[in-house]
Amino acid sequence: MIGGGQLARMTHQAAIALGQTLRVLATDPDESAAQVTPDVVLGSHTDLDALRRAAAGATVVTFDHEHVPTEILEQLQSEGVNVAPPPQALVHAQDKLLMRRRLEALGAPVPRYAAIESVADIEAFARRIDGPVVIKTVRGGYDGKGVVMADDPAQAREVVGRYLAEGVPVLAEERVAMRRELAALVARSPFGQGAAWPVVETVQRDGVCVEVLAPAPGLSDELGSAASELGLRLASELGVVGVLAVELFETVDGQLLVNELAMRPHNSGHWTMDGAVTSQFEQHLRAVLDYPLGDTAAIAPATVMANVLGAPQTPTMSMDERLHHLFARLPEAKVHLYGKGERAGRKMGHVNMIGSDVDELRERAVRAAHWLSHAVWTDGWDEHAE
After folding, report:
1. Phi first, then psi: what are they for 134, rounded to 5°?
2. Which residues sit opposite 187 in a β-bridge?
3. Do β-strands 40-42 and 24-26 pair in parallel, antiparallel, or remain unpaired?
4. Distance CA 5, CA 271 (A)
5. pTM for the whole structure
C-alpha cells in the first residue's frame, strides 16, 4: 500500500485476518501504518525507485491516498506491476477537472463548473451562474484544503488571481443549494463483481468530516437506491478496482449531484469496521486480490461515527487515561486510534457507536470523540466526583 497513514494502518489490521502481509511505502517510520506492519519501505510516493522497491514481489499495489503521479504508475504498470485501481481509473480521483468532464460525458449529475485560466474566466462563470462560486485546485486538495468558498465576485477574482500567479491550475463550480451531504461507498473487483454499503450522511465542519450517520436518516428508498446504483455504475465505467467513495450533495429539491470521488478506503466508510458484516478495509483487500466480495449489510439499525480531532490545546491528561475514563462511562464505545501525535484539527482516530436510535448514538459518539480530543465532557460530567 502506497502511503503510511491511518487508512493503511486499518487495512493492515484487515490483512492480518486474511493471512496477508501488507507492505507499506511510508515517508517516516513513525507514520501510522509503519508503526504496526513489519514490512515497511521508506521513501516518497513521487520516487519511482521507491515505488519499485515497495512493489517488488507484491501481488498487487494499492493506495491510501491519490497523490502518486500518473506517469509513475503507468511506468510501473508497463513493467508488469499489478496496480489497483489502475492509473487510468485513479486519475479521475486525482484531477478534479478531468473527473468533472468524464462524469459529465457519462451523464452523471454534477454541479455546473468551468476550467479557469484567467480572472476573466471566473468573472464570466460567476455571471453565468448568477450566484456564489466554489474555487478548487485541480489537483492535490483534501479535507477542505484547496477549496475556497467565494461569497462575492471580488473575492473570487482575488482567489483565482492568487492561485494562477502561483501557477496552480483551478476550476470553479457553483455553490450548490444542498440539504446535506451523502456518500455512496461501493467496491468492485477485477472480475467485475460489485457491492454497495448503505448510503450514509456525512457531516462536515471547515471542510473536514466530523460525523457519519449510517444509514443516512430519512433517506428515501428511491434516492438511496439511485445513489448506490450511481456508485456502482461509475465504478464499472471508470474501471475501478477496490473501494470507491462517491461523495454526493442531496440538493434542497431532492436531487443528487456528485461532489468528489475517492478510490480507496474513505472516512465515510469507517463505520463499517463495527457496523457492517464486511468492513471497507477487508473489502478493499478482497477486491484488489480478486477474491469474491463480502456482505455489505449493516449489522444494526444504525451506526454513528465521530472523528477524534486534535484539540486547540493538547490536554495534560494522557490519552491512556482518557481511554480509561471513556470506557468506564461509555463501555459500548468502539475506539480506533491512529497512533498520531496530537495537533489541533488533526484526525487522531474515530469512535463508532452501534444501536437503534440514531439521535442517541450521535450524542454519545460526539461526546466520546470530544472527550478523547479535549479531556472535557460536553455535559460537564466529572469522572472523579461521579
Report:
1. -115, 130
2. 195, 243
3. parallel
4. 18
5. 0.95
